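User: Before I run my own analysis I want an independent prediction to cross-check against. Here's the chain; please return only the structure tokens and, at the end, one sentence I can use as a sanity check.
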Amino acid sequence: QVQLAESGGGLVQPGGSLTLSCAASGSIFTVHDMGWYRKAPFKQREQIASITHTGVSNYAESVKGRFSISRNDANNTLYLRMNSLQPEDTAVYYCTFDLIPYGAGEFNYWGQGIQVTVSS
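Assistant: Structure tokens:
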């Protein structure tokens, strides 16, 4: 059974930085596209960054120039480096993988979410 686990969240002051990680475990044949979403209180869920299996990345305007997405296919891990954090970045962050487990078809998997709070 495939599972995604996020780490690296927490409380940070405005202007600070955090790096989120998302590691996939289980019987994985291959991973295709990956991405990060976030859900802030009273707001809709927002896709903020994505990266294809060839390494092409895209960002939401709200994070462009401040956040950087990367991946390590050797250990099926996704990263999100977040710089210049602001209170409006406060949200629960979710990772998502499009992957193929051994013996099954492609499916979209989600992590459980991790809290990021930006406050002084």
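Sanity check: The chain has a mean pLDDT of 96.
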